[in-house]
Write a structure and sequence with these properties.
7-stranded antiparallel beta sheet; 6-stranded antiparallel beta sheet; globular
């Protein structure tokens, strides 16, 4: 995977940065994030820039293994696929799910491991996404922020049913119980957008694990992305989450389009 930096897609330049921190409580960092910016112009033009973020779960080190497999497998399979981006992302997620699940069945110490996974592809003037779990993808556009993924969690389901308010959900004790992840079952239903998202100059995409979005509000994420470069935004967001206790691993990736 390429080091986060910049890639030119036609007239658009995509600047990316990633920051991850184990937080102030956890012994291990079970989050993983990767950015792929192909060096070959033909591949970049055909497949675009990919960001993959995963938040692992399981026994000792199992979550770390699951998240790493997810990021590496999605990146590899997406770029070797001949399918269109949406289908390529979906099949890459399915492949990662199978790898993690099969490994958990053959190694007792890894039983029950799994990981959230959220991916973004920016290709030309459109973007694609695939998602499972409660990591998030936000879009900051013209000073407003939009959550572009739905949390696959118990609390999110209760909010949809009207049993909880959005405000009470933020601090609900079950907010981290997820309903969907890669590797926990033999098959998984991957969430994707029905249509690719048109990308505008000035757009900023933020991918983050729940260690970030549980501690930092969407409005604060929006504000942090307005302050400067992608790397500065990542550093600011991680520092803010740590200052509020850092109860979980904290990972954030920012992609700015100009």
């Amino acid at each position: 995977m390429a080091t986060p930096g910049t890639a030119q897609l036609g007239r658009l330049i995509v600047s990316t940065s990633v920051a991850t921190d184990k937080g102030c409580v956890r012994e291990l960092n079970e989050d993983c994030c990767g950015v792929v910016q192909p060096a070959e112009a033909a591949i970049l033009d055909h497949k675009g820039v990919l960001i993959v973020l995963a938040d692992g779960m399981g026994g000792y080190r199992a979550g770390e293994i699951a998240s790493r497999i997810a990021v590496e497998s999605v990146a590899r399979e997406y770029y070797i696929s001949a399918d269109e981006p949406k289908e390529a992302l979906t099949s890459a997620f399915q492949d990662a799910n199978s790898q993690i699940h099969n490994l958990s069945l053959t190694h007792s110490e890894l039983n029950g491991m799994g990981t959230t996974c959220t991916a973004l592809v920016i290709l030309g003037r459109v973007a694609y996404s695939a998602h499972a779990g409660d990591s998030r993808l936000y879009l900051v556009r013209s000073g407003s922020i939009y959550q572009m993924t739905e949390d696959h969690s118990v609390v999110s389901a209760l909010v949809k049913q009207g049993a909880l308010t959005f405000e009470s959900a933020r601090n609900h004790p079950a907010r981290n119980l997820i309903l969907k992840a890669l590797g926990t079952h033999a098959t998984v239903n991957i969430a994707t957008w029905d249509q690719p998202l048109p990308v505008h100059s000035g757009d900023c995409f933020v991918l983050c694990s729940d260690g970030l979005h549980d501690a930092v509000s969407a409005e604060e994420i929006c504000l942090a992305t307005q302050s400067g470069e992608a790397a500065a935004a990542c550093e600011c967001l991680v520092a803010t989450a740590r200052s509020r206790g850092g109860a979980d691993n904290i990972t954030v990736a920012v992609a700015r389009v100009d």
